Amino acid sequence: MVVLSIFLAFMGQLVSADQQQQLALSSASSDFSQRLYQKVALDQSNVIYSPYSIHSLLTMTSLGARGDTAAEMKNVLGITSLGESVHSLYRETIQQLNSQSNVQLLTGNAIFINPSYPIVPEFIQETADEYFALTDHIDFSANGGPEKPINDYVEVKTEHMIKDLLEAGTIDNLTVMLLVNTIFFNGTWNSPFDETKTRKQDFQLPGGAVKQVDMMNGIQIETNVKTDDVNKFDVAEIAFTGSRFAMYIALPQEVDGITDLEILLQKPGKVDELFTGHGSYNVQMAIPKFKIETKLELKDVLVDMGMAKAFSDTLADFAGLTQKGQVYISKVIHKAVIEVQESGTVAAAVTAAEMFERSLPVFFIADHPFLFFLRDKETGQVIFQGKFSG
């Protein structure tokens, strides 16, 4: 990053301190995402989640953490070096994401509070100022249970793609609050696929098996492609209208190369290399048409990654959140959906944290397992990440 900054300055394109910090935030989110991927996706054929949603919600929650609990959260999230500026950086990111006109993109935060618990006013104010978080009370008398109003909120915010996030019985009298992040994306490809050319084709699986998938064919576009013959994968960028957002497909050169690619990307900084060093080529493109839905319970995963105290009913320190008794995070629930089709991509995700007391290719044919990243090229934020294996 330092070398790149010096080079750009030499070329007369100075990278501002704010831009550097934005890149540092997106890099932290990306590295966190790859460590998370190793815990939740390796044994899955198809998976989708939003690194942005999970990382931003936990960063917002860290506003109420103190002592070792705060230190652990910041360390796992990779934001220690950013200090308190991380929150203003997320404020800028949210403003940028929600101001797009070429794609439909909306992200938001909400806090649902148990009215029996006094919440530290500064926490509510800071989350409103830095994360534009809306605050409401948990309605324990709601028809259908206290989960229903929150599920309804999530469904509306994700254009009805995410339904029934919280199961009945998730919320009880010990629930202090629920912190929720939602994100919805709907983008049209710069060069849409021709629906008449979509047909069933072979999709090769590791070990020699083959299955039929709906393959979108026939698109020939000028696009950015990267070939890495050392690590044996290719990356193609498929841009959405306006070209600020793009889907990157990382395709192993070997049918059974997905595991090697997954191992490579767990190394710090490696995922960011997927998005650099591209050349522009006239490419004949074919990718599967697919829809993936994933629900993740992240408590055990985050504890294993080093965020143990935040989930401990005896060690958690959230004195900046509430002054009534010991509170801790009991659950982190994440649900995401993505649909890739001829015209473009629709995706949505929601993350909820509950607090409790106590050779360069001319053809790019994605006909075997691959990873994909839906990314904001301006901020560097990976909005969605996933794997498709047929």
From TrEMBL:
Transmembrane segments: none annotated. One of its GO terms (molecular function) is serine-type endopeptidase inhibitor activity. Keywords: Signal. The keyword Signal applies. It comes from the Eukaryota. It holds the Pfam family Serpin. Residues 34-389 form the Serpin domain. One of its GO terms (cellular component) is extracellular space. This is Serpin B6-like. Belongs to the serpin family. Residues 1-17 form the signal peptide. InterPro entries: Serpin_CS, Serpin_dom, Serpin_fam, Serpin_sf, Serpin_sf_1, Serpin_sf_2.
